[in-house]
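Tutorial sheet, problem 5. The two components below are modelled jointly, 614 residues in total.
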Amino acid sequence: MDKRRVVITGYGMVTPLGKNTDETFEKASRGLSGINYIKSFETRGLPCQIGGEIDNKWIDELQPAGAQRLQAYSSRGLRLMMAATREAAERARLAEISDRGRIGVALGSHGDNPAVDDISLLHRFYDGKGTWDMQGLMRAGGYSALNFFRRKPDAATSLLSMLFDCKGPNLSFVSACSAGAQAIGEAYRIIKEGSADVMVAGGCEATLNFTGFIGFVLIKALVEKYATPQKASRPFDRKRNGFVMSEGAGSVVLEDLEHARARGVPVLGEIFGYGDSADAYRITDTHPKGEGAILAMRGALEDAGLGIEDIDYINAHGTSTVQNDLTETRAITAVFGDRAKKVPVSSNKSMLGHTIAAAGAIECILTLEGIHHSILLPTINQEFADPKCDLDYVPNEARMQTCRKALSNSFGFGGQNACLCIGQFEG
Amino acid sequence: MPQNIVTEEKVIEEIKKAVAETLSSDAGAIEPDNSLIKDLGAESLDFLDINYRLEQAFGIKMARHFILEHIEEMFGEGTAIDENGQLTEKAVQFLRARYGDAFPGFKANMDMDEVPSLFTIRTMAGGVMDILNTLPEKCAKCGNAAWKSDDGVKVTCGSCGEPAAYMNGDDLIKEWLTRIQEEKKIC
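Model answer (structure tokens):
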């Protein structure tokens, strides 16, 4: 078989900055932040009190047809993904494709965390020594059996396949911050190898509740020192001290180029390559020389058959943690050598916060939007230069600049690294 | 007040146990002057675990923030760490006052990232002893001076059974910094 090319025919997102791609991109190009004080649960007494929350009204408003009857089984993240996929599917005219067995789903997500109310309810029927009052719990009737589906990440891909009638390969990724990018990367590989013609791929995350939040607080991964919520996420800045947790979803429709041409759907971009690796180093600490990140970036370039001189922009993982931003800078410098200081690098997380499983997908889409508009999105909150982070981070303001090909990095907490090489479709 | 119920040897023994459990290594192979990071391979998450184990064992609250962070908060940004991420002369003076000559390695312009690797089982024991030595003379609950310990680790009131209440590790560092500043006028 001739080498298949994988293009993008649709995308959609819901983020703290906007209900759809246009809204998020427009606000991001003005350097606005979607971070604020958390309203949906009590944060008093916690060392971090901010996050990127999405308005509940948007979620209800943006649900696609058929989603209502699945609501009871759907995690909050899945509902965001349904909204994002609705936008992507409309753009890609997904419904008009006849062979549904050739359309698959690849999703990075983590399901819902237990709600504090659920935990409190269950504890009322537990004596603390191993005995459960099952009769009492059943009489109280307050614990929904459907919580089971909302916790399981794989339920999301199942429901997405039902809602969008995708009978092809169905994959669930749970690799934290790299899950969304891995989903897109593996979907790309599936199309390349011929197992599907179209893949709905991306990531969603909505674990911004007390139990989800407190986990990151306990391991001291979240920002604790900030002047205002909007200034807290400051990737590559010397005063960075942890990430800001957010929710969101990004959905991308990937398609075999010939398939797209045959049905005459507009092509929005191309995926040229994908590289992935594991740090195999520590539980959360990144490899000091960024070996895993280097492997992933070089892998993406090699898969794409491109060199460092072909890359005009890097969408960084840039979480605003002391470690990641330093390691990522070192890795980019190692891969790009003398060219490293000439390639602009920016982090969308400076404005959106860290959307965890959704990040890889949202950032891939924002990179493509930037290419379409000839705008490089900024890394905001660049106030204090860190001599160890010395690349061009497109500080504070968006920049008008054409770009044809880019790398988008997603480096997961446990050391899973994913790098997508994406860009303009040039025929 | 300085107490002699929990000895420094016991503290070192407990720290070795905590470190061995956290890192799944052999407590017997750990030396008091081993660097937690360089010699024993601890990473950032391990410190959280080790601290938690010690808090449970001794009934104390370990400091959540490093002394350099406290200096910056009390005396202003840039006091301990300059804009290049290096230790200032003032930071070195504070560190020398606290750790004496244990660390000839502390010098101005040292990269702050290198500081954690200097810490050893013994320096950690010093921190725990400082907290244990804030044991009040009398039990707050019953007013008696009857402290005892069955295992040489956890201290309780011999009269009413109430667990000993120590000063919190972060407050202790702040108190020490205030005192040293008054004495030596470093800032």
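Marking note: Chain B touches chain A through seven residues (CB under 8 Å). Full credit if you identified this.
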